[in-house]
């Protein structure tokens, strides 16, 4: 492995850890679309997503921020190989690696300490297999 091509999951982790909330939401919205980001952020309308991206509104709590950071990392893994449309479908589709549960639903409803690593592992596997 060369230093010029770090592991995609490590690059996504480093980027997610350094981003402001506004940068994170802007990037995630480009990858997944405003509706899916709103769903993951547990808000009812895309207006909140736009306000987060504009920096005129902050995300409610640290758990919601962490959920979006994990979603960003997973989305980056998928989009390293595929299009944002594939990433959107991946997040919403029933995933056999996740016991036929959708990654977006797991992230939204599950305990991040439990489901975060599962979703990231499923994204790594999807990205590796293609």
The overall pLDDT, averaged over residues, is 93
Helix content: over 70%
Number of domains: 1
Percentage of residues in strands? under 5%
Taking the sheet with the most strands, its summary is:
none
Low-confidence stretches: 1-5
**Series of secondary-structure elements, N-terminal to C-terminal:** HHHHHHHH
What structural category do the secondary elements indicate?
A: mainly alpha
Instruction: Give the C-alpha Rg.
Output: 14 Å
Number of helices: 8
Protein name: Antitoxin Xre/MbcA/ParS-like toxin-binding domain-containing protein
Organism: Rhodococcus kronopolitis
Describe the structure.
The protein has one domain (8-129). The protein has eight helices and no strands. Helix 2 packs across helix 4 (46-54). With 130 residues, it is mainly α. This is Antitoxin Xre/MbcA/ParS-like toxin-binding domain-containing protein. It comes from Rhodococcus kronopolitis.
Topology:
Layout: H1 8-18, H2 21-32, H3 34-40, H4 46-54, H5 62-79, H6 84-92, H7 103-109, H8 112-129
Task: Briefly summarize what is shown.
By secondary structure, the protein is an all-alpha fold. Helices cover 70% and strands 0% of the residues.
Key words describing this protein structure:
130 residues, mainly alpha, 8 helices, 70% helix, disordered N terminus
């Amino acid at each position: 492995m060369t230093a010029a091509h770090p592991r995609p999951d490590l690059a996504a982790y480093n980027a997610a850890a350094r981003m402001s909330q506004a940068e994170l939401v802007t990037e995630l919205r480009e990858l997944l679309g405003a509706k899916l980001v709103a769903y993951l952020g547990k808000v009812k309308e895309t207006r909140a997503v736009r306000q987060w991206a504009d920096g005129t509104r902050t995300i409610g709590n640290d758990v919601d921020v962490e959920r979006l950071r994990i979603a960003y990392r997973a989305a980056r893994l998928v989009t390293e190989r595929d299009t944002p449309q594939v990433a959107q479908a991946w997040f919403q589709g029933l995933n056999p690696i996740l016991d036929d549960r959708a990654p977006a639903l797991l992230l939204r409803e599950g305990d991040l300490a439990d489901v975060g690593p599962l979703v990231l592992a499923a994204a790594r596997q999807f990205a590796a297999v293609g």
